Structure formats: C-alpha cells, structure tokens
Amino acid sequence: RTDGLPAWTVAAAVSALRGFAKREPLLRRSRLQICCEPLWLCVLLHAAVGSGHLLVRVSMCLLHAFAHVFGEEELPAFWPLVQALGADLLKQGRLSAAATISAQMLNYQSGIRPPYVPALSLHVAASAQYAPVSSDVLFFRFRLPGAPGFIRILQMLTAEARAQGIQFARPVIMDASQKSLSFTEISRFRALALLPHVPYAQRLPDVFALNSPTLVPALPLLHKYVWPYAGPFCGRTDSELSQALDPTAANTSSHPFSPFAFQGKVFQPDRFDEDRRYWAQYTEWELWPHLIRFKSRGCDMLGRCSLWSDRSGGFFPRAIRILSMLWPRWSWC
C-alpha cells in the first residue's frame, strides 16, 4: 500500500501464520510456545495453530500497536478470536497476567479475566542477593522520560549540601548509553532508585528479587511518571484504537472509572483526578510491598534513603526555601 494505511486483514494474517507455522522447523518440533507481546498476535497465533503447545502471558494492553497492522474495520473479525482464546486457554490454565492492571484492562475490554501471576524474577534471586559494599545509590535505568528534571533537582540539593561540608552518598546514574551492570554488581549498591515510565515494568521485579532497598515515587508524584507515556497500557502515546471495547463481550469488569478516559490524546491535568487515583491502585508500583516510597523529588527522597549526615544543620530548610522559590507550585516535603 502507498497510502500509509494498514494493509492486512485478520483473515489474511491468520492464514499467513498458519502457513508459517507449518514451514518453520522450530515451531513444528517445539513442545511449548510462549507468547506475550503483542497480545493481539497471540490471539492470531492461537487462531492459526490452536492451543496444543501455547502458553500466553498478558503483559501489555490487548490492542497495543494493533493500528500499525490493521484498520478499525478489522475489529469485528478480531473480537471472536479473542473470545475463542480466552475460552480455550483459561480452562487449561495457560493464560495469565504479569501485572494486575493488565488483567483488569483485558477484562474491561473483552470480559476475559486472566489470573494474576506476578513476575518474581526467580532467575535473579538465584544469581545475586543484596550485599552492599559501599554507600553509593544506583539510579537504575534513569534516563527515561521525566528523569532529567528529577536528576537536576537532586544535583542542586547535593551541590548545596556539599558546599556546606555535608557528604551525601554518591548517586550513580545508570542509563542505556552505559555498560550494563550484572545483577551481582547491582546488588552491591546501598540502595536503588527507580522512576516508572509505565504502570508495570520488568525492572521492578528484577530489583525486588535482589532484596535491595528500592525507592519509588509515592502518590501523587507517581501520576507524573506512570501515565504520560503509557502507550503500551492503552495510553495516549498509542492509537485511540487500542482503547476499543468488544461490543459483544459478557462479564466485563464494572469499574467506577474508565481506564481510558483519563488517558486521552489531550492531557488534562485539571480533570480525572479520581480516575487516576483509582487506576493507580492497580499499578505494580503501588501494589508491591516493601518498597520505599517518596513523595517529592527532593528532600523526601533523600530522607528516605538516609543520604544525609546527622550534622546537616539548617541545610534542608534552606534548600526547601530555594526550591519553593524556583518551583512554587510543588510541595517539596
């Protein structure tokens, strides 16, 4: 196609997958086929080859990136395949969700409720455990959207403190441009800090399995990071088609607020406060226990991590006054 519109039909995609499965040696001899993302491809694969060797793990939104391949006119042909997958795999225990919000959204869209089986990263726990060798704090994968402003504020606070002779633990910023750290290397930091970029990220269970003290934003600060780029969870950075509902589905969840209304293309921070608060409770950042939650981008985070000296004197009150003048609409502590 030269018009930029999706070229596939659901029927053609299922036929192509069926032919591919017959020709592909690995699929022909495999005893287990694990499918995860995109979830709609798992639906098509099930329609093509059946459930004999298929295990499906729900992670992201059902229709994430669906619009890259199919048009809206293909949804009537797609929804019956979704129902067939649910009816087939649920009774066999071959369908589960890695995140609570993924299970809730799938139920909201299609009436299918997969059991929530959290990712525990047992492979990480088997390879490394918390064993700090310094007071350094690792800001784990910290170049995601929203992080630069956070880092700038942290740098201002630490620079002011050091100018007064107060020594903080050294923050180490880890991003994608650097050499990856092994889990053993990560376990040697005094603490870890994470900023969300979506409602569920695999890096959370990975570091959780290390038993390392882990700092994450608390509500309401969490909203600033978890929703703006949540396209994989039917958010505004994906097509509006990802929020489509199966009009014939039964047993859909009855939530007091839609998971989609507050994630519209136009960001409206003055609306949908209750919606955001309601759906935040289903994010893994709120559900997982033993996380150290901080409420501000500055002093509260440093306090939770115990990064300052007992001899800090009047540093924090002065720092808070400076930050309040620069960003008067933020509550810093």
From TrEMBL:
In which domain of life is the source organism classified? Eukaryota
Tell me the protein's name: Rrp5 protein
Q: Per UniProt, what is the name of the gene that codes for the protein in this document? A: rrp5
